[in-house]
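Re: [ENG-882] Designed sequences occasionally contain unexpected residues at chain ends

Forwarding the minimal case from QA. Structure tokens:
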């Protein structure tokens, strides 16, 4: 078992210290633990969902000072904006990895929309797909978190299938792994979507499993479900093959 998508009290909407997560990972027998706090910005953009910029140094120091019997790696979960590409590159230089994730979309009039827990109109779905694919194409990310979050409160029809296929095709072309997200399952948010991941499995696209834990007790909680879901739909999984650099190998689940 491993987890590369871990939050903590630092994000402002989670709990538990870095050391408490590490202790829980040790108790669970993890082979690798990666921390991935939401990446803050110096102008405190999107500050309601992430740590203050001034806390970055403390977060990084806490992760780097852990002494564990398994590799612990430092990362960030990033909302990609092209104008901030240079900043993300700087962070990637000193961190071990970055995870991409689309949490917001911006309409042409500048309105910012959270993609969680809402039924997006068709025009927003297209924005979701375009911004997710642009982020995946940035070359910054070791994998892409909850690519199926746009399905969180939708019935899976033709439109949803088309968006899913566009994202899956792009992930395949760009060779970027996608994440089967356990927090959506634990919070009953409507993802991971069986329909989305069945399409992935049919195309031979494997998945990273993550708990996306925001509480210490959630660190290992969703893996049994995620693995049984993968096994039922013949979805192959990935696991870390090395941490510096972070690389993956395929494990057959069936
Ligand atoms: Zn996320
Ligand atoms: Zn997350």
């Amino acid at each position: 078992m491993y987890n590369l998508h871990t939050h903590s009290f630092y994000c402002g909407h989670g709990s538990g210290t870095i050391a408490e997560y590490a202790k829980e990972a040790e108790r669970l027998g993890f082979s690798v633990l990666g921390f991935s706090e939401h990446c803050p910005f110096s102008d405190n953009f999107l500050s309601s969902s992430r740590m203050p910029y001034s806390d970055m140094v403390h977060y990084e120091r806490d992760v780097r000072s852990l002494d564990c019997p398994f590799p612990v790696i430092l990362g960030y979960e990033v909302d990609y904006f092209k104008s901030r590409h240079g900043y993300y590159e700087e962070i990637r230089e000193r961190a071990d990895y970055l995870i991409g994730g689309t949490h917001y979309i911006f309409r042409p009039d500048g309105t910012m929309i959270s993609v969680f827990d809402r039924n997006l109109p068709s025009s927003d779905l297209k924005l979701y797909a375009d911004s997710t694919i642009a982020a995946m194409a940035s070359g910054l990310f070791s994998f892409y978190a909850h690519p199926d979050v746009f399905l969180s409160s939708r019935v899976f029809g033709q439109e949803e299938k088309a968006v899913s296929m566009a994202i899956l095709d792009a992930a395949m072309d760009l060779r970027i792994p996608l994440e089967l997200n356990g927090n959506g399952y634990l919070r009953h948010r409507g993802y991971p979507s069986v329909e989305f991941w069945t399409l992935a499995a049919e195309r031979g696209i494997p998945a990273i499993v993550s708990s996306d834990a925001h509480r210490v007790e959630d660190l290992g909680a969703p893996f049994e479900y995620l693995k049984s879901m993968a096994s039922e739909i013949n979805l192959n999984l990935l696991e870390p093959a090395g941490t510096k650099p972070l690389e993956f190998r395929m494990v057959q689940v069936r």
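QA comment: On inspection the terminal residues look reasonable. The domain at 2-251 is CATH 3.20.20.140 (TIM Barrel). Proposing we downgrade this to a documentation issue.
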